[in-house]
Amino acid sequence: MSKTSHYFIDDPLLVHREKRIKFFFRTKEYTFITDAGVFSPDEVDPNTAFMLRSISKLSGSLLDLGCGYGCVGIVLGDQYGLDVTAVDINPRAVRLAERNAKLNGVSMRVFVSDCYSTVEGQFDTIALNPPVHAGKEVVYRMFEGAPEHLLPGGRLYVVLNKKHGAESAKMKLAEVFGSCDVAAKDGGRLVLVCEKT
User: Fold this and answer.
1) Which sign, positive or negative, has the C-alpha torsion 107, 109, 114, 116?
2) Rounded mean pLDDT for each run of 10 residues along the chain, 197 residues in total
3) What predicted TM-score, i.e. pTM, was given to this entire model?
4) Looking at the DSSP assignment, which residues form a beta bridge with residue 125?
5) How far does CA 95 lie from the centroid of its chain?
6) Is 169 exposed, middle or buried (0-12, 13-18, 19+ CB in 10 A)?
7) SS3 content of the chain, % helix, strand, coil (to 5)
8) What's the rounded Cα separation, in Å, for the pair 96 and 99?
């Protein structure tokens, strides 16, 4: 990866290094195709795995925001029979998410979107492991756009490490939603949840 290349941008010059990784959730094994230039290509990110295990049973529709290669939307969609939309700014990640959905037998809509720029409609749940290295401005745009994309009573779940600004993110989310709760914590890792009232 070039010095200026990150998982949240599309670097067409980046050499492909596809691999398959496994992820166990409850009693099921999932397989994901990953590649260079996408987030956490060697394993499902521990924060993502922690968020998946911390979210209580869902129903209805899910927006997997910043979906990467599709883990969150695929696992939650499969486990709970959700209507899933998954978006990412990186076209390479989106192509992988499409392939992984088919590989794991999950139906979901996947497309390129800069935050919510091409997202239409409202959802029961939005799940987000924010791209902290893209900067606070990008992450806060993801927070600020969430209420208008949630149905009444809908929830936003966000996973963050304290060292990556979880406490300041909690304050920002409380400002956006009126309140923000901690759904789960493990050491320096927090899953935050906000409900649209």
Assistant:
1) negative
2) 47 83 97 95 97 97 98 98 97 97 98 97 98 91 98 98 92 98 95 97
3) 0.93
4) 62, 155
5) 15
6) buried
7) 30, 30, 40
8) 5
H or E, element range at 159: strand 150-161
46-195 fold: Rossmann fold (3.40.50)
Q: Which amino acid is it at 12?
A: P
Token pair for 49: 């795995």
Handedness of CA 89, 92, 95, 101 (dihedral sign): negative
Encoding tokens for residue 164? 């990556």
Domain locations in the chain as residue ranges:
46-195
Token pair for 32: 């994901």
Cα–Cα nearest to 131, from 111, 118, 156, 114:
114
- Give the CA-trace dihedral at 7, 9, 13, 17, to 10 degrees: 20
Hunting for tokens 């978006």 — which residue is that?
87
